[in-house]
């Protein structure tokens, strides 16, 4: 029987609560069928590691997880450590080190969840946001000169390469092509960002020619936020830069009910390196350590992990279990207006997995 090696990095805050829950659910899923097993290895990297060692992860950390079949990640962010240190020292190190250049963020309104938009039926909101995950605004290019002086200058340069934009555009068109509506919205801000985003637009026109069966349009990112609220059914697959898609996908998650539900995959489409799956939320300082975190974003990320491993039947089975749990308001956590705990939701999903024994 096949055994998948999964590297677990819970990180900080509620990451330490939702990732063990995800591991439990994957273990239960493996037990409920006899096709594959998981071998988990956990890494205690993050804020605690930083307090002890002065870095978020060891210098050879990427080497330690290099051979995993996939990575399950929680969150990097600690109330005592500046956010740019925790983010750059762990999550971005992995995303960039393993060239996980496609960040895929599906959003849908799951059964039983009250989405905040009154005019939006569940079927009207079914999106996948593709986020460029290797360059753009988060390329790390820039600096500070004359720090602390009145003449100080600080820059963060949004650096885009033709090769980097072409590969994410091609990935997004291909993904759009695989979905029933075959529709892509290319998000841009080329009216104001007149160099990199103009190249982005030109590359969209060029790559679109390879996908004549995909309908596509362009939308400025600010207008796109309004369109998501006013005409959600007009969108299907979207592609946007690192920063723009970061913001759009939090909005998307909130429109679908809660940040606590939304999943993501940091994918290396060429499969040279392991891909990394994580809920889109962060450490949630306000609720950490209380056992109140919604684990659904992590469970849905596990669905994406299973799809990536080439286990679509198992992925579907887990998604069904998640949906039958969200359908019951008594199993909603605080972010959804309910009273359930992380443990109760986890136990309910495991119960459903076992009940669905084939
Ligand atoms: P956050 O996602 O941690 O929290 C935003 C709000 O959503 C909070 O009120 C929180 O309680 C709620 N929330 C989020 N996830 C939830 C869940 N699963 N269940 C219930 N409620 C949930 O965002 P933030 O407050 O902006 O960031 C906190 C820290 O996390 C910062 O250090 C930030 O840098 C970090 N962060 C890390 C990642 C990552 O590792 N990928 C992503 C986002 C934020
Ligand atoms: K996260
Ligand atoms: Mn984000």
TrEMBL record:
| Record bears the keyword Membrane | no
InterPro entries registered for this protein in UniProt: ICDH/IPMDH (IPR050501), IsoCit/isopropylmalate_DH_CS (IPR019818), IsoPropMal-DH-like_dom (IPR024084), TTC_DH (IPR011829)
What keywords sit in the KW lines? Manganese, Metal-binding, NAD, Oxidoreductase
Q: State which Enzyme Commission number(s) the record gives.
A: 1.1.1.83
Indicate yes or no for the key word Metal-binding: yes
Q: Which cofactor does it need?
A: Mg(2+); Mn(2+)
Q: Which GO terms describe its molecular function?
A: D-malate dehydrogenase (decarboxylating) (NAD+) activity; magnesium ion binding; NAD binding
Q: Which reaction does it catalyse?
A: (R)-malate + NAD(+) = pyruvate + CO2 + NADH
**Family, per the entry?**
Belongs to the isocitrate and isopropylmalate dehydrogenases family.
Q: What is the name of this protein? A: D-malate dehydrogenase (decarboxylating)
Q: Which organism is it from?
A: Ramlibacter albus
């Amino acid at each position: 029987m096949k055994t998948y090696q999964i590297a677990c990095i819970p990180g900080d805050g509620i990451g330490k609560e939702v990732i063990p829950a995800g591991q439990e659910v994957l273990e239960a899923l493996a037990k409920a069928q006899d096709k594959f097993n998981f071998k988990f290895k956990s890494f205690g990297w993050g804020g605690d590691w930083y307090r002890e060692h002065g870095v978020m992860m060891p210098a050879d950390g990427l080497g330690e997880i290099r051979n995993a079949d996939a990575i399950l990640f929680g969150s990097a962010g600690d109330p005592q450590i500046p956010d740019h240190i925790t983010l750059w020292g762990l999550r971005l190190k992995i995303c960039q080190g393993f060239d996980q250049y496609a960040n895929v963020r599906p959003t849908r309104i799951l059964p039983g969840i009250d989405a905040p938009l009154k005019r939006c039926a569940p079927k009207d909101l079914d999106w996948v946001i593709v986020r460029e995950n290797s360059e753009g605004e988060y390329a790390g290019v820039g600096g500070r000169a004359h720090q602390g002086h009145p003449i100080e200058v600080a820059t963060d340069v949004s650096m885009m390469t033709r090769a980097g934009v072409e590969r994410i555009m091609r990935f997004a068109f291909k993904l759009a092509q695989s979905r029933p509506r075959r529709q892509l919205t290319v998000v841009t801000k080329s009216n104001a960002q007149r160099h990199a985003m103009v190249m982005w637009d030109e590359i969209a026109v060029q790559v679109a020619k390879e996908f004549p069966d995909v309908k596509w349009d362009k939308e400025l990112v600010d207008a796109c936020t309004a369109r998501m609220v006013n005409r959600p059914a007009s969108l299907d697959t979207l592609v946007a830069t690192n920063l723009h898609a970061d913001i759009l996908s939090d909005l998307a998650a909130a429109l679908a009910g809660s940040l606590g539900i939304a999943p993501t995959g940091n994918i290396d489409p060429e499969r040279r390196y392991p891909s990394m799956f994580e809920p889109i939320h962060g450490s949630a300082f306000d609720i950490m350590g209380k056992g109140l975190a919604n684990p659904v974003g992590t469970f849905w990320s596990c669905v994406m992990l299973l799809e990536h491993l080439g286990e679509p039947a198992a992925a579907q089975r887990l998604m069904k279990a998640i949906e039958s749990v969200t359908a019951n308001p008594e199993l909603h956590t605080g972010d959804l207006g309910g009273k359930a705990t992380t443990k109760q939701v986890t136990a309910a999903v495991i119960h459903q997995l076992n009940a669905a024994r084939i």
